[in-house]
Amino acid sequence: MVLDAQIKSQLNQYLELMEGDVVLKVSAGDDDVSKEMIGLTDELVSMSPRITVENAQLKRTPSFSVNRPGEETGITFAGVPLGHEFTSLVLALLQVSGRAPKADQSVIDQISKISGEFHFETYVSLSCHNCPDVVQALNLMSVLNPNITHTMIDGAAFKEEAESNNVMAVPSVYVNGEFFGGGRMTLEEIIGEIADGPDPDEFNNKDPYDVLVVGGGPAGASAAIYAARKGIRTGIVAERFGGQVLDTMSIENFISVKQTEGPKFVASLEEHVKDYNIDVMNLQRVSSIEKKDQFEVELDNGGVLKSKSVIVSTGARWRQLGVPGEEEFKNKGVAYCPHCDGPLFEGKDVAVIGGGNSGVEAAIDLAGIVNNVTVLEFGSELKADEVLQKRLNSLSNVTVHTNAQTTEITGSDNVEGLTYVDRETQEEKHVELDGVFVQIGLVPNTEWMDDSVEQSRIGEVVVDKHNATNIPGLFAAGDCTDSPNNQIIISMGDGANAALGSFDYLIRN
Question: Same structural domain for residues 454 and 472?
Fold first, then answer.
């Protein structure tokens, strides 16, 4: 048995929702992965009369495709889609059977109109929490458009292939044999890359807003909901709805929710926002903001949105080292997500740069996968919580260097080493390794704002107790501000506070 009793019980309920027949075309060998794959497909057949299996010769072995009788849908799983990818398999079965996808009709129409042939391949690890979003998006596109195909490839099952393509971070997406993109991508983001974007006049012709929120993370969603509840015209313009939370593996400190994952949390935020009359403009990057009679917010595509007040909630991103080799070796050994990319470094030597909670947690996680972890901390001691430091010090395959200033990441095609300076002795040292995980905090996404908005020395927007900036009518909330702590729950409180401050500004002016 591949599936345990509890999973089979849940799966039975989903398979009852299938609306038509599905044929699994299986390409298998004598290897262990093939045997596990056959075990999985046999169990699926035994659980639903709508599922049948045919032997086939596919591009990769072991793999299987999910089709309608007499019709290829273009969805293939190379490897065994268990772990985080099991949901991708279930959704593929339902959607290929004819079950309507949970997507806006406008998105479905946009996918159907995409012209040209696109053959996508995505390398994943089954422990990656970002990979399923990409796999499910591309599978859905394959179901809706006959010119699009997609294959999920388990990097562990096809290790040699992944290494020959220099896949050192997941998800890694290729289209028509060329690298397309890496990291988490939403369905809308993928569509935006291969389909025509909206016309600037779509934004120019919108009526002015009472409150326009720039940024769609927890702070932005909270601000928009609080503003909309006041009955005023509210909009959100966001480069990526959900922001950095989409890349968060586990959330355990959002009070009243014991544990959840970033993508699930963002899905709940999005559903809550949709309950209100809020104009959400996703995948739109703001390039500038200027106060005239009203605020004018210009987008990268040239469109301009107008509003009586604005709340900036653009969040923050992972801080980069800024040393030679970091940019050159991104996705070639330099990584920022140990949960996603850690399995690709199984049995290898890696470094973690940063001795705070994030860095030490990453080192602990990686120590169970890799051969050796070297932790480099710039300061004289680790900054992580004591309980995490005790756990780290108990691990035999972890080496810690404090007062270590990383100066270069070295390699040829991929990362091969790291150079650092001992800040006490000024001695330069070199460590040979295969991967570098950067965990040195956050930098606010405010570089697009001009100096008329007061900011701290590191670019944080300075706000008062109402989350107001130095410009009347302009507010800011969340990780892009000078708030002393960056936490989801604090950002959401900031957003609510900024919306109430904005409403107060509107009724007084």
Answer: yes
